[in-house]
Amino acid sequence: MNFIAPFDLKISFKQLYDLFCRKEIGFVGINIEKATIWLPIKYEDCNPQIILMPTNTQTLHSFIPAMIMWQNQDMNMISEVVSYIRKKNGDYDNLKKINSHICKRCEGICYKSEGCLYSPSNFKEVSFSSLKEFISKGYSTIILVREFYTGLEDSFILKARRVGEPVVKTKLIKNTPCILLTNKGCMLSENERPKGGKELIPLETGSCIPAYTYREAVEEWMPYQKILEDLARFFINKNIPFNGV
Question: How far is residue 108's CA from residue 120's CA, in Å, rounded to a whole number?
Fold first, then answer.
């Protein structure tokens, strides 16, 4: 494997996605501590363009030096690119979503550092007044997703709120669990959960595939940017308590 270093190319979702489509790069992944790490490699015709390697000593020895070159935010973005491509390719079509048996074993590790992404399809109506009423319940957050992560223009989206997170995210906070997480799992029923939660694919390895990506969320929220901008102005710096669903 010929790993690509971050200084060999301009790092962004758009750049990596375009290089992949031109078959100049591929991606190789490995499962480490209940997470799948993906890194870009130079593409060779004799190999698949996306390869998930077995977790063993030999693979780890080749992966770790390459990982050290990359920052966490870059690797998160690379995972977004891979998830978006694999979903477009139909790789997730036959994989089971929301597997309570697996989730009980891992105790919801995916919810312990982030909240799931909402889609406009989660709501019967998408208007300023309807979303204002929903956000006032205290378990959702408006965030601005930068072009770096999606290849699209900076856009507002809505996601489940984390413990200690403001209703309008204006700064980074340390990893905290989703505000809806309990020792029995999510407070919401499967039907009520954000699309990102419904689209999570838990694996026997203990990791999850986030099959609803930030790129898809931005694409779906694009027609409602004016509404979300107005809501961000309304809620910014407001202390909205969470008192249960």
Answer: 25
Query: How many domains does the structure of the chain reveal?
Result: 2
CA distance 183 to 104: 10
C-alpha–C-alpha distance, residues 45 and 152, integer Å: 29
Q: What is the pLDDT along the chain (245 residues), one digit of tens a residue?
A: 799 988 777 789 999 999 999 999 999 999 887 778 999 999 998 889 999 988 888 888 888 888 898 988 899 899 999 999 999 999 998 887 776 776 666 666 666 668 899 999 999 999 999 999 999 999 999 999 999 999 999 999 999 999 989 999 877 677 788 999 888 788 998 889 999 999 988 877 667 888 899 999 999 999 999 999 999 999 999 999 998 88
The SS3 of residue 97 is coil
What value, to the nearest 5°, has the Cα angle with vertex 168 and ends 139 and 127?
75
- The answer to whether residue 78 sits within a structural domain is yes
Among residues 11, 7, 13, which one has the least CA distance to residue 213?
13
Q: Are the C-beta atoms of residues 198 and 99 closer than 8 Å to each other?
A: no
Are 142 and 215 in the same domain? yes
**Strand 208-210 with 200-202, pairing:** antiparallel
Considering the domain architecture, whether residues 222 and 195 belong to the same structural domain is answered as: yes
Closest CA to 69 of 39, 27, 110: 39
Say if residue 222 is in the same domain as residue 135.
Answer: yes
* Cα 172 to Cα 82: distance, rounded to the nearest angstrom: 24
Q: What is the span of the domain harbouring residue 224?
A: 100-235
In Å, what is the CA distance from 156 to each residue of 16, 134, 175, 216?
Answer: 23, 16, 21, 12
